[in-house]
Amino acid sequence: MADPPGCCRPCATCLLCLYSCQWITTKKEKRKGLRTTKCDCSWFLFIFCVFLFTLVWLYFAIIILNDFHNFNEFIFKQRKLWLDWSLVLLIATAMLITYSAVLLVLALCLQLCGQPLKLHWLHKTLLILTALVVAAAFTGLGIKWAEEWRSARISLQATGPFLHIGIVGGMTLLAWPLASFIYRTRNTGLKVFVLLVYCVLMIALYLAPLGITSPCIMEENQLPPKPALVGHRGAPMLAPENTLMSLHKAVNCDVQVFETDVMVSADGVPFLMHDEELTRTTNVQTVFPKRAALNSTAFNWTDLQRLDAGSWFLERSPFPTVQSLSADDRNQVTEQRIPSLEQALQAAKQSNISIMFDLRPENHSDYQSFVNATLEVILQSGIPLQQVLWLPDGFREQVKQQAPGVQQVYGRKRLQNEKEPLLHVNLPYQDMSSEEIRQYRRDNISVNLYVVNEPWLFSVLWCSGVSSVTTNACQVLKEMKHPIWLLPSSTYLMIWIVVDCTSFLAILWAFFLLK
């Protein structure tokens, strides 16, 4: 068999070396009469499947970055070890997909050059390990972080049209080595089978847009107003969470609500703190080493004021943005202390923003006294009660009676026979579909979804008509003047037709040219 046009002998030899891990010249290969066997074809198919498997995992890895800070916090609570595990995830994923992609490209080039696909045993072993690692990653995701499957479904509303174009393009390029294979193989049954499978896949891809839905496929004049921003524990990418500095940074990001968490000290002072232990966001292990593992509510206010609530932010760098802080900001970070609820209310009052909070821990035996202490601080602060958004479900009726002006926010969807209509709901972004968001909007129910950090997710929720989002990245979402993309349905239809027609013509050209 002569070398195919455009495939020089040194190139073919190099490809064989990389793919088979043997330096075999093309002449020797011909003399031995080696051909691509059914087993070799099976390994090529396995390479292709592993590549697709790792590609899907890469997509998931990018999607779950929106929520990865929660995973970092979870690991810290379990192991007391802080690390940005998203970097580990992305580096490992990039290595796996690069390896499988290189093998796939080598195999396709060898096929175009008419060379045998003799995959070396080392590559076979590494491919199997790659498939097992990715399978383990998917399994762990399903067991420990099942809500991310819903995140992936939402992401398809943002990426669906573009994934369709990319997949059609990839399958169109695949027509070249496929045509080469069809014309070279002598097995008629295999030819028909491969060609039939390819045609079915392409027809399915050409019709896929019929099933693609996205709230961002709409006319410009139908776009709802931009969602208001709620600072999740302030602006935690710019300052230590749940501190006054974080509140002020959030105000600079034009947030309308400061979202926080409240606990009550042993002597009855409500203060801002998310974790039940103080170890992650203070230096309690240095100041009170024997009491570090105690619940935050076991400390009195005097002890809490001795703790440094800022330096951990510089030491652990919970977000990449920490590295870009100015010298003045860094100095201000080291001066942060745990703020009381009274201080936070005064700061919110002066900045004319609302404050929304959870009261923790709800399973505490003295929870009613926590509610009473919190209500007392709110009523004495002088803040307009409509600027206070109450999240806790415990003793809600008591709160309504003692502070009727406080806005009640519910962490659930409305019930079918709701006695008192809901005005505000606060839910994870995975829990509401675009259709539900639109229906709540029509019924004048304010919907806040959390935690939304990535622009693609913010864009989908913006197009859906959500009222507000809780975010760690207020400095990023503040700068968005428009969703990432917005396509009128007529434009999308035109793109669909052009892509499919171009693909079809390119496939015909590939089969005609290589005939």
TrEMBL record:
<feature type="transmembrane region" description="Helical">
    <location>
        <begin position="125"/>
        <end position="143"/>
    </location>
</feature>
<dbReference type="Pfam" id="PF03009">
    <property type="entry name" value="GDPD"/>
</dbReference>
<feature type="transmembrane region" description="Helical">
    <location>
        <begin position="163"/>
        <end position="183"/>
    </location>
</feature>
<feature type="transmembrane region" description="Helical">
    <location>
        <begin position="493"/>
        <end position="514"/>
    </location>
</feature>
<dbReference type="GO" id="GO:0008889">
    <property type="term" value="F:glycerophosphodiester phosphodiesterase activity"/>
</dbReference>
<keyword id="KW-0472">Membrane</keyword>
<dbReference type="GO" id="GO:0005886">
    <property type="term" value="C:plasma membrane"/>
</dbReference>
<dbReference type="InterPro" id="IPR017946">
    <property type="entry name" value="PLC-like_Pdiesterase_TIM-brl"/>
</dbReference>
<feature type="transmembrane region" description="Helical">
    <location>
        <begin position="41"/>
        <end position="65"/>
    </location>
</feature>
<feature type="transmembrane region" description="Helical">
    <location>
        <begin position="85"/>
        <end position="113"/>
    </location>
</feature>
<feature type="domain" description="GP-PDE">
    <location>
        <begin position="227"/>
        <end position="481"/>
    </location>
</feature>
<keyword id="KW-1133">Transmembrane helix</keyword>
<feature type="transmembrane region" description="Helical">
    <location>
        <begin position="190"/>
        <end position="212"/>
    </location>
</feature>
<keyword id="KW-0378">Hydrolase</keyword>
<protein>
    <submittedName>
        <fullName>GDPD2 inositolphosphodiesterase</fullName>
    </submittedName>
</protein>
<dbReference type="InterPro" id="IPR030395">
    <property type="entry name" value="GP_PDE_dom"/>
</dbReference>
<keyword id="KW-0812">Transmembrane</keyword>
<keyword id="KW-0325">Glycoprotein</keyword>
<dbReference type="GO" id="GO:0006629">
    <property type="term" value="P:lipid metabolic process"/>
</dbReference>
<comment type="similarity">
    <text>Belongs to the glycerophosphoryl diester phosphodiesterase family.</text>
</comment>
